[in-house]
Amino acid sequence: MNYSRMEKIAIGSDHAAYQFKEEMKTFLLSEGYEVKDMGAYGPERVDYPDFGISVGEAVARGEFDKGIVFCGTGVGMAIAANKVKGIRAVVCTEPYSARLSRLHNDTNVLALGARVVGPELAKMIIKEWLTTGFEGGRHYDRIMKIARYEENRG
User: Fewer CB in 10 Å around end: N or C, the chain?
Assistant: First the structure.
């Protein structure tokens, strides 16, 4: 965690992961992060792309340092967030992939599946993801290839 200032995290979920998101929000606040909940705000049926895209856009605009999104598997949210220019969203089901996604890919949105990982494992994944920095070097060059492709596609 960046101790020079409190990191700002945008979170969002669909209805399937609403309760899970609420539990992870409590965890993030207890860890000292500033959290903005961008919905869903209850268990009523909603469309996950609305929330994945909203979190992605807020991170891409620089309003938040990172984003975390939740749905049944994490897959739908990751797909939606990855449609936003500048977002590198990853689905993780264990801490090792979370760590490498930050070290090598500089991911800025984490997607978790409420039906896939339990709350304690999710906390370990989140903590690993949030506390791991980007390694840079050859990985930076690869990220820039992706950014150039994004910039040039119509």
Answer: C
